Structure formats: structure tokens, C-alpha cells
């Protein structure tokens, strides 16, 4: 009886030793590749989509699947392939007018495996330029930064079936809006602005330094 117990104890010790000797397979990190925003440039009315390829050798699906756009996280969805070996996408989105947008991708498989693309820093893009409508805004919108100093504004309209002077007065916009014939500021046209003090007209990335009295400006939109 004693020998049987001793044999069983020895067998148990040997079994534990064998189990301890079996190598534990290390968990591999997932891999990200081909991160891109499409298209790479467009206007403020363009829809942009973000894509990245995900692969996990362990067959693990991502628990966290995000693209960070200008520092903010957005959850991506499987676009094609399998969850452990597929393309993920996010969009459509328009991050706004500008050339300083940045993005990167971050995935986590829930088992201590994570990946970031690029590994450090961020990708630049997309380049977003104003749409035609934003280059040619309503007069009140385009002159919003100086409306409290604006005395009156004139433009000259040639073609489009009408030739002659157009005018905008902020007070008329409230009392007699039909009197305001200068309704839109258009790129590559000149405008005469009268202001009651020196000021700066700002629109988008543009700034016009105005003197007290009359000023002639060429409208360039954003």
C-alpha cells in the first residue's frame, strides 16, 4: 500500500515537471499596415474615408479598433476580409478646412496584443480646401467681422444679365432687405467698403487691413 502511494506521488511529480517543461506559446502582437485616408485632398464638401489593414497571427479579433483624427478617437468597422485578417474603415467624415490634419490607427486584441500605425507620430492629411460656396459667401457672412464698423459697401456687377452698381447696408438688412442688391461676395471681384474706423476684415485665412473711410479690396475667399 505504501509503495502504491509512493508510486502515485512520484507519477504526479513527474507529470507536473513535464507540464512545467512544455513551452508556453507567446502571444503575438497584431499588425497594422496600409493606413490611408481617401481621397488625400478635397473640399469642405468632400467625404473622406480612413482605411487600415489588420492581421493577427493568433486569430484574435480586435477589441479596440480606432482611428485618431486630430487627437479624437473614432471606432472603425470591418470593411472586407475576416475580423482577424481584414480591412477596417471609418467614414465618411470631413475634418474641416485646413492643411494641418493628422491621424493614426490603434488596435488592441484584448489579450495584451496591441498595434499602432504609424508606430510614432501621425500621418498628415487630408488637405481640405474651401468649397466654391465658401469662397463666395453671402455678404453679411463675408463681412461679419466688421459689420459693427461698416458704413456701406459697393460692388459692380457686370454680365449675368445685369450691369451696374450693387450696394449693401447692414441696417437695410433688418429694415429693408430688398434694398440690398450686393448679396454675394465673389472671388476675383473688387469691392468698395466704407468703415467708420480703422479695422481688420477677417474671413477664413485672409485678413484685410482697412483704413477709416473708403477702401478698395479684391475678394479672395478663404
Written overview of the protein:
With 222 residues, this protein is of the alpha+beta class. It has two domains: 99 residues, Immunoglobulins (Immunoglobulin-like); 87 residues, no CATH class. Helix content is 15%, strand content 43%. It has four helices and 17 strands. Strands 4, 5, 8, 9 and 10 form a five-stranded antiparallel sheet that branches. A four-stranded antiparallel sheet has the order 1-3-7-6, with no helix packed on it.
Brief overview, please?
By secondary structure, the protein is of the alpha+beta class. The protein is built from four helices and 17 strands. Strands 4, 5, 8, 9 and 10 form a five-stranded antiparallel sheet that branches. It has a four-stranded antiparallel sheet with strand order 1-3-7-6, with no helix packed on it. A four-stranded antiparallel sheet has the order 13-12-14-17.
Could you give the topology of this structure?
Blueprint: H1 2-21, E1 31-38, E2 41-43, E3 48-55, E4 64-69, E5 72-75, E6 77-82, E7 85-93, E8 102-108, E9 114-117, E10 123-124, E11 127-129, H2 132-135, H3 139-142, E12 150-157, E13 164-168, H4 170-175, E14 190-195, E15 199-203, E16 206-210, E17 213-218
Amino acid at each position: 500500500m505504501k509503495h502504491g502511494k509512493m508510486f502515485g506521488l512520484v507519477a504526479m511529480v513527474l507529470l507536473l515537471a513535464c507540464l512545467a517543461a512544455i513551452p508556453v506559446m507567446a502571444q503575438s502582437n497584431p499588425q497594422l499596415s496600409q493606413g490611408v485616408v481617401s481621397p488625400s485632398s478635397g473640399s469642405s464638401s468632400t467625404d473622406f474615408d480612413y482605411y487600415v489593414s489588420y492581421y493577427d497571427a493568433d486569430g484574435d479579433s480586435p477589441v479596440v479598433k480606432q482611428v485618431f483624427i486630430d487627437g479624437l478617437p473614432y471606432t472603425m468597422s470591418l470593411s472586407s476580409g475576416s475580423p482577424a485578417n481584414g480591412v477596417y474603415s471609418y467614414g465618411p467624415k470631413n475634418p474641416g478646412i485646413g492643411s494641418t490634419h493628422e491621424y493614426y490607427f490603434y488596435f488592441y486584441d484584448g489579450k495584451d496584443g496591441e498595434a499602432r500605425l504609424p508606430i510614432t507620430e501621425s500621418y498628415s492629411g487630408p488637405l481640405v480646401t474651401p468649397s466654391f460656396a465658401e469662397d463666395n459667401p453671402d455678404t453679411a457672412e463675408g463681412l461679419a467681422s466688421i459689420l459693427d464698423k461698416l458704413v456701406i459697401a459697393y460692388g459692380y456687377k457686370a454680365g449675368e444679365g445685369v450691369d451696374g452698381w450693387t450696394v449693401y447696408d447692414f441696417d437695410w438688412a433688418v429694415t429693408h432687405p430688398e434694398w440690398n442688391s450686393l448679396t454675394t461676395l465673389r472671388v476675383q471681384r473688387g469691392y468698395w467698403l466704407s468703415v467708420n474706423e480703422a479695422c481688420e476684415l477677417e474671413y477664413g485665412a485672409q485678413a484685410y487691413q482697412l483704413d477709416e473711410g473708403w477702401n478698395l479690396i479684391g475678394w479672395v475667399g478663404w
